[in-house]
Amino acid sequence: MLPSSLRVSLGLIAALATLLGVALGVLYAGRNRPGGVDRWIQPSVDGVSPPWRHIALAVDFLAEPAGAAALAVAAVSGCLLLRWPRAAVLVVVGAVLTVGATRLVKPLVGRTIHDGHLSYPSGHTAFLTALALMAALLTVGRLGLGRTAGTALVLGAALVAGAAMGWAQVALGAHYPTDTLGGWCTALAVTPATAWLVDRTAGVRQRERRRPRVTPSGGTRA
Question: CA-CA distance, 143 to 56, in Å (whole number)?
């Protein structure tokens, strides 16, 4: 699930994303207003009118419970039809861990928006970015892409998904721009680690299955 050609590059990216996410969390901890970057970006995005508002609502729905469940079921079904059980596990575990990480961090940071709603990091942005990252990782593995092309594909997918959902969240007034950046960083930190964990777990199970079993008579069998 984590192509060997990308382990070093994605490991570095995950580390940088973690550092940036933590730095933003510390910077905006306990605040209930936009920061300097937010004030610079929000006026050009917040409060869009139709038809852009309808588009923003449609993108937002992809990470709402019903939309996210539909996307996850479609992705898992596709993996199972293609006989990629490990990929199906990655989709489920990756989505759960990514969204779970945002819910764990939100009360720790305590940043709020609109009547005290916890806002940092954006779970919607994290979810869609994680799903795009997992799809890109599977594509890199299937096509056997090298480090440069593979890293470009993975980062490109993450940027497109993160930018789309981040724009929708700010346009709808649900998050500050830096909240969405924090969600994007969360996905970049959690998803590669989850793919590595799935690979490690599957590898251990495969070795255990291949290990000869001791029979009652003292012999061994495969």
Answer: 33
Give CA–CA dist 43/1, Å, rounded.
Answer: 40
Distance CA 23, CA 121 (A): 12
Cβ-proximal residues to 42 (8 Å cutoff; 6+ apart), any chain? 34, 170, 176, 177
pTM of the predicted structure, to 2 decimals: 0.90
CB neighbours (10 Å) of residue 125?
31
Bridge-based pairing of strands 117-118 and 213-214 is unpaired
Tens digit of pLDDT at every position of the chain (222 positions): 788 889 999 999 999 999 999 999 999 999 999 999 999 998 888 778 899 999 999 999 999 999 999 999 999 999 999 999 999 999 999 999 999 999 999 999 999 998 899 999 999 999 999 999 999 999 998 898 999 999 999 999 999 999 999 999 999 999 999 999 999 999 999 999 999 999 988 765 555 555 555 555 555 555
User: Which is it for strands 117-118 and 220-221: parallel, antiparallel or unpaired?
Assistant: unpaired
